[in-house]
Amino acid sequence: MHRRGFEDVVFKGKGIVKGSFRGEALVTREPISFLGGVDPSTGEVVERGHELRGKILAGKALILPHGKGSTVGSYVLYSLAKKGLAPKAIVTVKTDLMILTGCVISGIPLLSEVPGEVLDMVESGDVVEVDAYRGVLRLILEQE
Amino acid sequence: MRLSKTEKMMLEGHYGEACKRSLELIIAIAESYGYGELIRVKSAHVSGVSYKNIGDAGLEYIKDLAEGGAKARVRTTMNPCGFDLDKPWLFGVDETFFKRQLEIIKSLEAIGVEPSLTCTPYYSGNKPRRGDHVAWAESSAAIYANSVIGAYTNRESGPSALAAAITGRAALTKDHTDERKPSVVVEVSAKVSDYSDWSLLGLVIGRLVPDEPPLIKVRGGVRVTDDELKCLSAGLGASSATSIFWTAEQDNQVLRTPKRIAVTSKDLKRAREEWTLTRRPTVVFIGCPHCSLREIKEIAERVKRGRVKKDVMFIISTSRSVYERASKLGLLDVIERAGAHLVKDTCLVVSPMKLSRNEVVLTDSAKTAYYAETMTNATIALGSRRACIEEALKM
Question: Against a cut of 0.90, is the pTM above it?
Fold first, then answer.
C-alpha cells in the first residue's frame, strides 16, 4: 500500500480478467458461495448468518477473501451477468477456480491477490477504482 | 506458455471454435491460478447439470459448445439433474423445466459426456487410480478423488471441467503436484460415528479454515469407511474452498506448520443446533452424496419390517448404476414395499421440488441442510441416519 498525497490509497494485485470499474464497493471478510448463497433472480446475498445478507451485488465492486462452496457457482455468476445482476468487478485476496472461471466466461473484471488488509481498510459504500489492466485497486478518498 | 503441437492446433481452431475457446479458458486459469503450464488429464466430471441451478444462461452456454462441435477427448461423467429420468413427476417438474433439462443433458451427451447423472462418479465406473491426474468439478467428488482415492485434481468449476473434458487438459496447479500438503492440523475430540456426524464435521472444519487443507485427527483413531469420508468431503466442500484433506490414518507426514485447531463435542453440538428437529418431518431425505450399494443395503435392512408414515415422503437418492444393482439384488423391492422412494439421477437440492414453509425436511446430510436452507422455503433439520429412518417409519 502507498499513499499518493492525501488523496487515494492504492493496493497492488494481479489483474486476471482485464477491465476496469469505478464505483461503490461492497466488502466482506467472509467467503461467498454463489450457489445457494446468492439469489439468482435478484443478485441478493441470502446465506443465513452471512454479513452481507440482504445486500445486492449488482453494480458494485465486490471485495472478498475468496469464493467457497459449489462448483456450479461459476454458472450462477454467468447467469447473473446475463441478467445485469452481477457485480461490475470482483476483487479477491486469494484466487479460486469458481470465481475465476465465472469472471472469465462472463467478462467481469477480476483483480486478485490483493493484500488481506484491503478487507479492513476498504468499507462497503466507499468509492473504489478497480483497474484490472494495471492490477491496482484504488480507494478514492477525495470528494467526488 | 509452452504448448504442444496439438495444443497449438487447438488454439488455431483446427479442432473447431468450441475447442479453441475451451483451451483459452484452461490457459487463462493456468496463467493466473496455476504454474503457467497445462497437464493432460485422464477423465473429467462436470457439475452444473440441473436446469434449476444453471438456468437459461447455463443451457445456452453448454448448447453453444455442443453446436460448436465440441467433443470430449477423455472419459467424462455428469452430475445429477433436476429429476429421475424415469419418474420425472415425483418432484413436481413442469413442462418448461422438463424440456430444458432434457436439452441440457442432450447437449452434454452430444459433447460426449456420459449421462451418469451422479455426484459419485467413482461408483459408476469413472474411478481414477491412485496417482491419476483428472479434472473433476462437484466439490464433494473432487475432494474425494484427491483425499480418498489419491488422484490429483483441481477443484474444477462446472465450466472449467467441461473445458478440460473437451481439451483433455487442465491447469497445472499445486493440486496436481506433491506440493499439496496440509497447512493446519484439526484435532477432533468430538465423537463422530454416524454419517451425519462426518458430514457435519466437514462443514464445521470448512467454516473454521475455509482455505487451508486440513490434516484431520480424530481422537482414538476410529476406523472410518470410504462412505463416511464421502460425507466428510461433502460437508467440507460446502463450506470451504479446500480441495483436499488428510486423515492421520492415511498419512504420517510431519507438518512443518504448527497451526492447530480443535473441534470439540460442543462445536458439533452447536452446529447441529442450527438444524434441530422441532416439528414432525414431512420429508425425510437420505442420499447426499448419492448412496453407495452398501448404504442402500443398510437402509433396506432397517426399513424391511416397517412402513413409511402416510404423511411423510421418504426419499433416498443414488446413482443410476447403483440403482440398477440394487434392483437386481432385490433391495429396491424391499425399499419400495416399505413405501420409500429410491430415486436416481437427482437429489433434493438440484430438483425443482417446491417445498413450502409448512414442510419440515429431515436429512442426515449437512451439505443438503446447508443448501436447502436458502434454496427452499422449508424448515430444515439434521439428524442421524437412524433418526431419519425412525422418523420416516411407523414400526
Answer: yes
Chain B residues within an 8 Å CB radius of A70 = 47, 53, 139, 237-238, 371
pLDDT above 90 (res B394):
no
Question: Please, which residues have CB within 8 angstroms of residue B252's CB and are 6 or more apart in sequence?
Answer: none
Closest C-alpha to B107, from B56, B41, B152, B150: B56
Q: Which domains does chain B have, with CATH numbers?
A: 5-176 (3.30.499), 184-273 (no CATH), 283-394 (3.30.499.10)
C-alpha grid cell for residue B381?
Answer: 433439520
What's the CATH number where A21 sits? Answer: 3.50.30.10
User: Which residue from A31, A72, A79 is facing B210, i.e. has the nearest CB?
Assistant: A31
Query: For chain A, how many structural domains are there in total?
Result: 1
User: What chain B residue is nearest to A77 in terms of C-alpha separation?
Assistant: B54
DSSP letters for B13-77: TTT-HHHHHHHHHHHHHHHHTS-S-EEE-SEEEE----HHHHHHHHHHHHHHHHHTT---SSEEE
Q: Which residue of A has its CA nearest to B58?
A: A75
Per-residue model confidence (pLDDT) at position B255: 62
Summarize pLDDT for B244-260 with one digit per residue, the tens: 999 875 555 556 667 89
Q: Mark the ranges of chain A whose per-residue pLDDT is less than 70.
A: 1-7, 143-144
Is there a contact between B73 and B23 (Cβ–Cβ < 8 Å)?
no
Cross-chain residue pair A97–B57, CB shorter than 8 Å: no
Using alpha carbons, list the distances in angstroms from residue A102 to A71, B101, B171, B193, B331. Answer: 10, 21, 16, 38, 42
Which value does ipTM take for this structure? 0.91
Cβ atoms of B308 and B339 closer than 8 Å = yes
Predicted pLDDT of residue B223: 81
Domain hosting A125: range is 2-140
B202: amino acid identity, one letter: G
Residue B12: per-residue pLDDT: 96
Between B352 and B255, name the one with better pLDDT.
Answer: B352
| Whether the bond into B289 is cis, omega within 30 of 0 | yes
Residues of A taking part in catalysis:
70
